[in-house]
Amino acid sequence: MKKRLMVLLASAVVLASLAGCGSNNAAEASGASSEAEEAAETAGPALESEDAAAGTEEAEKPGEKKTELVIAGGDAAGVAAAIRAVSEGMDPSAILIVEAGDELAADAAEKGSFFNEADSDIQFEAEIADSYEEFLGDTRKAGGDKNDTAMMEYLVESASEARVWLESLGVKFGAPEQREGSSAARSLPGAEEALGLQVEKALKAKAAELQIPVRYNTAVVKLVYDADKAVSGIVLSEDGKEENVDCLAVVATDPALLPLFEELKTVNGADEDAAAVVVTACAEAIRAGSGEEEETVPGLYAAGRIIEAAVHGAGALEGNEMVSMAVYGMTAGTEAAIYIGDTRG
């Protein structure tokens, strides 16, 4: 009972830390919005009436919903982010998934056949001794001690919540096994069907059920920022034609976008290591050179393949790739939705 209570308390700590993420980033943007509001007041009534008229005209267009969140990558983490944003209260029609290929969540099977979770209720019932510390040590060792420490710790702490969420989508897990590199039996396989295939089917089915808009065979050309360096839009390319899409936030998952992020903190890919974006525990992108008090980019989040080399280091512990997909996909979608709600309001 004591062990199970500790698991529940740890989950509560994770959830409490998440609660403050979106509001922090939105506060940066809202400070800028206050300045903009003051400027609008001094601009005079003519400007105010023009803006009001434009807002009325947009609101009167039937059957249209302005895009507020763009998911730049239709991999498993991107689809997870979109689903979580809806569960956070976003209108599905205000979300747009942009996929360079022609299929969603196609990488789920590549994430492996196991899902790692330490100090879990499943292990408790099976009388398997394990701890977050052991899980963390195994993860660091597999990554050659090149993992981003904060990202790695968040992965380990959030695994139980991610497993429960996947179960809510219909994914079924089997009994824990001890896989190579793990010091305890903490790797959960899929039950009845391979785990990766289950996850792919579950994510696709939920996205279809929610009717989240998707643009296939579409590339991201660049991100657009406002005067306060907050995300304000994205430029897409389809069949050689570019299109500007205004939005309030972007979740990036496609590693092909790395060249667009010179201003962000990244793992630089030296010594043949893969490059990746480094994020906070709220999946927020961090500005390069921002020092100990890391400055984040309002409205920009990352998850999935674009962050993997940072969280896993030189190599992923078997079972951790599926965990990072779920943990950071969930977090990015949740936090982006909170940020959008605060910014919109």
What does it look like?
Residues about 1-20 and about 25-65 have low confidence and may be disordered. Strand 1 (about 70), helix 4 (about 75-85) and strand 2 form a beta-alpha-beta unit. This protein has helices at about 1-20, 20-45, 45-60, 75-85, 120-125, 130-140, 150-170, 195-210, 310, 320-345; strands spanning about 70, 95-100, 115, 185-190, 215, 220-225, 230-240, 240-245, 250, 265, 275, 285, 295-300. The protein has 10 helices and 13 strands. The longest helix is centred in the C-terminal third of the chain and has 25 residues, at about 320-345. It is an alpha/beta fold. It has a 6-stranded mixed β-sheet. It has a single domain (about 1-40, about 65-345), classed as FAD/NAD(P)-binding domain.
Mean pLDDT rating: 86
Q: Write down the domain tally.
A: 1
Low-confidence stretches: 1-19, 26-63
Strand content: 15-25%
**Count of helix runs:** 10
Order of helices and strands: HHHEHEEHHHEHEEEEEEEEEHH
Measured as a percent range, the helix fraction is 40-55%
Our measurement of the CA-to-CA distance between the termini, rounded to an integer number of angstroms, reads: 43 Å
Shape: globular
Give a topology summary.
Elements: H1 2-19, H2 21-43, H3 45-59, E1 69-72, H4 76-87, E2 95-98, E3 114-116, H5 121-125, H6 132-142, H7 149-168, E4 187-189, H8 195-210, E5 214-215, E6 219-225, E7 231-238, E8 241-246, E9 249-252, E10 266-267, E11 276-277, E12 284-286, E13 296-302, H9 308-312, H10 320-344
Parallel strand pairs: 1-2, 1-9, 2-5, 9-13
Antiparallel strand pairs: 3-4, 6-7, 7-8, 10-11, 12-13
